[in-house]
Amino acid sequence: MVRAHVLAGVYEWFPLLAILTGVVVVVAAPVVAVLAVVAERVADVRVDRVAAVLVAVPTTVAVGALLVLGGVLAAAVVAAVVLVLAVAPLGVGWLVAARADATPVRAGRRWVVLAWPVVLGLAGVLFVAPGGFARYNVLFLDSPVRELAVAGLLAVAVLGPGVAVAVLDRRRRSRPAGTPPEPPRR
């Protein structure tokens, strides 16, 4: 019985680990985006590859350290959060950018990398929206509402960069090249 109680205490901090990992990803996303775009401009490298390396290297170090210090489950929690908040949104966005008709692939990749931190910031605001920064977040909602809210947050975070590229591509495709944008209608 004591062993079950000790194990329950060990796993209590996994939700906190997931939230802290999410905060780190949200805070690091703008830095990754800026560094990737600067590297693309200066060194003429693919922005998606630079962003992938800038996400993969710290994640590998963190997961490796947690394998040694925190165990397999702690490493799995961090890897899953990074997979959902970094790898999946960038991957989905890059797939949409590759299929965009009116947008050059290089520009589409750049749009994905630049839209990613904006979408993560939006997801972060939605996460704390029920109670504000000082009180509650989505996890304190009642059960059916909480599951819907978490599913919506995941949809925003994962599909957001791809949706941004699709909208920008659609907007670019809707008017001929070289024509100025129409003035707003009143």
Automatic annotation (TrEMBL):
Q: Which organism is it from?
A: Halorubellus litoreus
Carries keyword Transmembrane?
A: yes
Organism lineage: Archaea, Methanobacteriati, Methanobacteriota, Stenosarchaea group, Halobacteria
Superkingdom of this protein's organism:
Archaea
Segments spanning the bilayer are: 13-38, 50-69, 75-98, 110-129, 149-168
The protein's name in its UniProt record: Uncharacterized protein
Alphabetic keyword roster: Membrane, Transmembrane, Transmembrane helix
